[in-house]
Amino acid sequence: MIAAQAAASGPVIPNFGGGSKCVVENHAFCWGWVNAHWGDTLQPALVQHVELTGIAVGIGFAIAFSAALVAYRRRWLSGPIEGFSALLYTIPSLALFQILVPFTGITTTTVEVALVAYTLVMLFPNIVAGLNAVPAEALDVARAMGFTRRQTLLRVELPLALPAIVAGLRVAVVSTVSLATIAAFLLPKGLGYPIFLALKEPSPFRTEIYSAGALAVALALTADLLLVATRRVLAPWARRSPA
Amino acid sequence: MEHVSKRYSGSEAAAVSDLSLTIEAGELCVLVGPSGCGKTTTLRMINRLTTLDSGEIMIDGRSTLTTTVTELRRGIGYVIQEGGLFPHMTVAGNIGTVPRLLGWSRGDVKRRVAELLELAGLDISLAERYPAELSGGQRQRVGLARALAADPPLLLMDEPFNALDPVVRERLQDELLRLHRELAKTIVFVTHDVDEAIKLGNRIAILRQGGVLAQYDTPDSILAQPANEFVREFVGENRALRRLALRRLDQIDLAPAAKASSGLPTVSSSATVREAVSLMIETGTKALSVVDENGEARGSIRFDDAAGLLR
Questions:
Q1: Is B113 touching A (CB cutoff 8 A)?
Q2: To the nearest whole percent, how much of chain B has pLDDT over 70?
Q3: Run means of pLDDT, 10 residues per run, chain A, 243 residues
Q4: What is the rounded distance in angstroms from the CA atom of residue B150 to the CA atom of residue B157?
Q5: Among A230, A208, A150, A238, residue whose Cα is nearest residue A32
Q6: How far is it, in rounded angstroms, from Cα B215 to Cα B208?
Q7: How many CB pairs under 8 A join A and B?
Q8: A239 touches chain B (CB under 8 A)
Q9: pLDDT per residue over B247-305, tens digit each?
């Protein structure tokens, strides 16, 4: 009886008057929804996502770079640091959130700590490998021409390691863009959040998932292209990326 | 720079043991010997790339330990195989390295780079190329130009021409001799190739295993009087002919010019005595008429005169 009444009175999902036919009938993809919610949902999520990724890769790079410089001078440190960063990487992200929450609470810091931890395994080995791959003759000649250690690092070793460093950054950026979507399990932030909300619906609204997902992919590709362009400008001598 | 005298004492491994030699300013001194004879180690001790265990190296009467290591090295040119160029710098960037380290102004560096490109026989259009875009010979020339950039009085060269094909190698050897004549630099040159040593050196130090000096003399004396069996064997066969190759016709006393009607084959005065002898054998004559680059008769040379030069 109730079913019959409901059928008679229209769709089960209440229509608050804003949805188009596409949205109401839950089609695969609705441009109308994207247009309507760009300003209040997608754009803020994208900006938050860029922030989450940028901060994570930035801090991760600073840590990995410092550690790589130390490990480059003291080779025996390289193995343990790499092992430690790989170990961090094996911790499932949701579990890592759980471990961190008692210390840092349900905050952006918790998400960033986790994301930073994951970048290390991609950045550290690449930077170390890049430095170690600097040709011995170049170092020999630099020494013979009277470069100080610092000058050798700044003018010879780092420029020559640059393509490998950029290769590491590319992997780190792309994977962090992807990983950052899981921040939504903790915080209403980033492109993961619209996906998270839609998945919680009994019948998930796919446009939200597809558009947020597509934005994440576009963000990763754009960042990757920017890094490739940067390498071309800064290391015009490197025809091909060594990685 | 008046005197370079150095004395090393080897470690227990004795890469170089108790070696003493004096290299006169302006000389091109070649260190030659089989692998493991310590010639490269010796070279690298001069600019302190390798530290010496004992003994002392003096440049211009001053121990190399009295200046800071960077200051010392900036005053000594260094050339290695394939030029040892920085792959991430252009040709101009590579050549300007030491002047930039010394704090020259941008304009001065640029002028110097242009000057050196010309000196090294390189086209100015190569200035913006990267080393990967050059041929082996060009890379070597850039390496040499870079070593000369700050006009150091002393140049160290560690088997610089090894990776080059014979034709390019010979051309670069000739250019090095020309530069040595023009610039009056003191050059210490390491090679394992005796022929290269004989061709280039004013003096040759032959080293044997463990960095022991087997003989230190002019190429001619080494060929004429090998100090011991090791040197004799190392230098190899045809010593007499190779000595003749060290003498050019315009450097020796010639017999009076033969009469124009004598019909003798002619040979250029810039040829070596060895080439003259070879020509005599080829043409079946006992004498040649020597002419200068204008075709003017300068004298004549007989087979017996050539042989007599070595006595």
A1: no
A2: 94
A3: 45 54 72 79 88 94 95 91 90 88 88 91 94 92 92 94 94 93 86 84 78 90 94 82 40
A4: 16
A5: A208
A6: 9
A7: 59
A8: yes
A9: 888 777 777 776 665 678 888 888 888 888 888 888 888 888 888 888 777 788 888 88
Domains and CATH numbers, chain B: 3-238 (3.40.50.300), 245-308 (3.10.580.10)
Q: Which two tokens stand for residue A182?
A: 């899981």
DSSP letters of B268-310?
ETTSBHHHHHHHHHHHT-SEEEEE-TTS-EEEEEEHHHHHHTT
Q: How far apart are the first and last CA of chain B?
A: 35
Q: Is A237 on the interface with B (CB under 8 A)?
A: yes
| In chain A, domain spans | 47-233
Q: Record the pTM.
A: 0.79
Q: Measure the CA–CA gap between B118 and B129, rounded to whole angstroms.
A: 16
- Which residues, including other chains, have CB under 8 Å from residue B34's CB and lie 6 or more apart? B192, B208, B209, B234
CB pair distance less than 8 Å for A137 and B70 = no
Categorise residue B191: left if φ over 0, alpha if ψ from -120 to 50, beta otherwise.
Answer: beta
Q: Does domain A47-233 have CATH number 1.10.3720.10?
A: yes
Instruction: Give me A41's structure tokens.
Output: 């949902």
Contact B78 A148 (CB under 8 A): no
